[in-house]
Structure formats: C-alpha cells, structure tokens
Amino acid sequence: MPLFTFTDVRYTYPTQPQRPALDHFSLMIPAGEKIAVVGRNGSGKSTFFLHLNGLLKPQSGEITFRGQPLNYTRKGLKRLRQQVALVFQNPDDQLFSASVFQDISFGPLNLGLSEAEARARVQEAAELCHIEHLLERPTHALSGGEKARVALAGVLAMRPHVLALDELMASLDPWGRNSIRDILDVYHAQGKTILLITHDLSLVRHWATWVIVVHEGRAVFSGQADDLLHHQGIMDKTGLIHIWHEAMSDCL
Description:
Layout: E1 4-11, E2 22-29, E3 34-38, H1 45-52, E4 60-65, E5 68-69, H2 74-83, E6 84-87, H3 100-110, H4 115-128, H5 144-156, E7 162-166, H6 174-188, E8 193-197, H7 201-206, E9 210-215, E10 218-223, H8 225-228, H9 232-238, H10 240-250
C-alpha cells in the first residue's frame, strides 16, 4: 500500500486564480524511502508539501494517507500532524521560543506528554542533531546551521513517521549540508520516510532512493533516479537535463 496517494488534486491560490499551483496532481508515494522532490521554482513543490499534513486542503481531488482519506477535522489534523511533520526552508519560521530547550520541548508538550517525557524527547532529539551544547542558548543567537539543526530537532522530538523538508539545506555551507544529511540518514534507518525538496542534483543522484519530479503543478515522474535518466522527454521538458550534466561535471 502506498504511504500517500494524491488523485487529481487541484489547488489555486486566491492571489493567482488563473494559474493553479497544483493541477490534476496525481501521485503515489512509497513508504520507507529517502525521496528527493525536484522541479523548477514555482512548479508546485512547496504547495504539494503543504498538502501532506493538511496545512492546505485540495479544492478538488483526494489525498489518502495509509489508505484512508485525510480527515480535516481538528482531531483528524492533530493525529495526522503527529505522524507527518514539515520543516520549512527558513528555520526562523519555526523557531519562536526564547531558548533552544523551550523550542524543542514545545511539540512534545503540545502532544500532552509529561514534563519528564518531554525532557527525554528533547534530549533524544538534541543528541541526534548534535546540539546538546545549545539547549540553554537563546534561539536568536544561533548561526544559520545551528538554527537548521534546532528546527529539525524540534520536529524530530515529536517522532513523526514522515519527515518533509522544504529546501532546508539550500542556504547552508557544505559542512552544514553534510551534517543535516547525516541526521536524515540516521532517522531513515529507523524506518522513517523522508521527503526533501532540493535543487542539488548530487543529492538526487547519490542520496535519494526515490525521486519525484514536479512540473507546472503536476507530478510528471516518480521512481528511481537511474530510471529518470531514461526519460529524455521529461529531462528536456523540465530543464533537468542541463543542470544534471552540470552537477555530474562538478563531481569530476
């Protein structure tokens, strides 16, 4: 059974009524994969992510999670968001507490866990993200890489089954990107599913076990990276062929 199924999903932002962000978007997402989501800016990738945990609701079409249609009641969304977590491109969009410890503990406490349980979750997530030394630090005093790892820890403390990251590594230096990738590999090894929006095709080629290509509001490819190379029409239409060759030449 697919983890998620999108069937003919359509969504249009009120500010752009003539241009659907998702247009008859259909896709099956497998469980347990490291999934790279690629496509040009404005192709619909972020809008697709916002539908994964109900932050946006389709205007038509259907989304199922583990075979069941998404439940958009308050109770249904709370249950979904315990299992499917988003991490945004700008960590400042997620960091709002005074200290790192308070920020990471917010999610577990919001789940109704005791203070002792929440503290254990914070420690677990901090160790995974290598930020134990930052727990008492004010969030506003963190570097960009530290903010990214703290934002990630705040989500991991809730132990979601699905982790979706919207270009979290885009503004990080190579050390920061490698650090995040190592954290994701450890989390994936626990049987979790990870989706990552990225423009870094070396990640697609060497990290991802599955690739989704979004183009003009539609999912035009879903499969293994090696198989994507054989779809010349998709590579040409989406412009991936050019940046793919650039990424591979940079590795030489």
